[in-house]
Specification:
By secondary structure, the protein is α/β, with parallel strands linked by helices. The protein contains 16 helices and 7 strands. It has 3 domains: 108 residues, no CATH class; 55 residues; 238 residues. 50% of the residues lie in helices and 16% in strands.
């Protein structure tokens, strides 16, 4: 005990000497170098103390009974938050039973360095760019494969995200999917990521859940929504569910949330309708459609659509039919009572799935350089990382207009 106390006193004296020797302007230039030397010396002394404790006798002490013998040293490097510490002398026992607690077997980085790498990855930097971003901080390069191995620690976070209990406070639910390439046995294949995005009664935006599926089928969508229901999203405050027109989601909504109003996305529907138009007809047709969904009331919207139908039925019957077959779902957003000062903003947000498509742009930005994912786990990690960053970004930025429903 006295030996340890004297060692610490000696080290503190060296720190004082260092501070007295350097000029103030050179402090930050030299401090990391000094801290690395000090940390190395402290690690080596700690390892020696652990070896003494393991052998139950002081160094060079001879006792009739002993557990093991010293067998020299070996060298190892470790990356720390102060930078790389090289050639640490680690004591070795003859029987190989001595296990230091300072670092684990084969450990090459301080745990806090791994934490920094994971946090940088969660903030949106790709595995290939993490090394360049962190080299000025930790003083060493880390390969993309090493970053991938480190980020496997996120699997626990992904599992918690999928199992997190949900509060039944969502008033608007947006459902959509995005496709991503994953390596198969013989070639790459497309998989679908089903995504749920919600706005709470407090105006908070949140990417609630995602699930990997082979297709946007009724069975996959129903299973996805059932999982949300079991986790707590029972829909008691749900005013509307907005989708892009997926038949899988439409069928699943009728089963899991049969009492919720359903809104079809105007952007997707208009895209489908204009496929049946000539190029010269696009602009005037879209102007007539704008008059429909920008109408102040549901009755005015129906009247505007009747005028559109009368004008375009002869020249573009398929385009008119495309809108007419889903007109009730397209105009559902006009049936929700909204205060006049918030009406334009809220209706613009809930008549399309654009709000979730903006999140998908971030997913595509991150995944496009990767080309093709190795497996489903790597997909889950990157999607979780993107969603976690966006949710953190939105945490303190609620849409106050949506709180008028409280």
């Amino acid at each position: 005990m006295n030996q340890t106390y004297n060692t610490l006193n000696h080290r503190w004296g060296r720190v004082k000497d260092f501070i007295n020797q350097i000029e103030p302007k050179d402090f930050w230039i030299d401090v990391n170098s000094y801290l690395r030397k000090l940390t190395k010396s402290l690690i080596e002394d700690t390892l020696d103390e652990e070896m003494i404790k393991y052998q139950q006798r002081e160094r060079y002490e001879r006792t009739p009974e002993h557990l093991d013998y010293r067998n020299g040293y070996y060298r190892r490097n470790i990356d720390t938050t102060f930078g790389p510490i090289e050639c640490i002398t680690v004591p070795r026992s003859r029987h190989g039973l001595f296990k230091p607690t300072v670092f684990r077997r084969y450990q090459r980085r301080q745990r806090s360095v791994d934490d920094v790498i994971c946090n940088v990855f969660l903030r949106g930097i790709s595995t290939r760019d993490v090394a360049g971003a962190l080299k000025p901080i930790i003083g060493t390069s880390i390969s993309a494969s090493a970053v991938s191995r480190i980020t496997k620690r996120l699997d626990h976070n992904v599992k918690e995200f999928h199992q997190k209990q949900l509060l039944d406070e969502y008033q608007f639910l947006f459902l959509d999917g995005i496709t991503i390439s994953v390596k198969g046995s013989l070639k790459a294949k497309k998989i679908l990521i089903l995504v749920a995005y919600g706005i709470t009664v407090f105006g908070k935006k949140e990417l609630i859940a995602f699930r990997i599926a082979n297709a946007e089928s009724t069975a996959a969508c129903e299973s996805f929504l059932n999982d949300l229901f079991r986790r707590g999203l029972e829909g008691k405050n749900l005013k509307m569910i907005i989708t892009d027109g997926s038949k899988g989601f439409i069928s699943a909504i009728e089963i899991v949330y049969p009492h919720a109003k359903h809104q079809r996305c105007w952007v997707h529907k208009l895209r489908n309708a204009t496929r049946h138009l000539k190029k010269a007809e696009l602009k005037p047709f879209k102007l007539d459609v704008h008059a429909v969904y920008n109408a102040p009331t549901h009755r005015d919207a129906v009247a505007a659509f009747k005028r559109l139908r009368a004008h375009w039925l002869r020249s573009a019957p398929k385009a008119v039919e495309c809108l007419e077959q889903d007109i009730d779902e397209l105009l559902a957003f006009l049936t929700i009572p909204i205060k006049e000062q918030f009406r334009a903003f809220i209706r613009r947000q809930i008549r399309t799935t654009n709000i979730i498509e903006r999140s998908f742009r971030e997913v595509r930005r991150r995944t496009r350089p990767m080309g093709c994912f190795t497996n489903y786990d790597s997909v889950s990690r990157i999607i979780y990382a993107i969603f976690n960053r966006l949710n953190s970004k939105w945490e303190d930025k609620p849409l106050k207009q949506f709180t008028q429903f409280i």
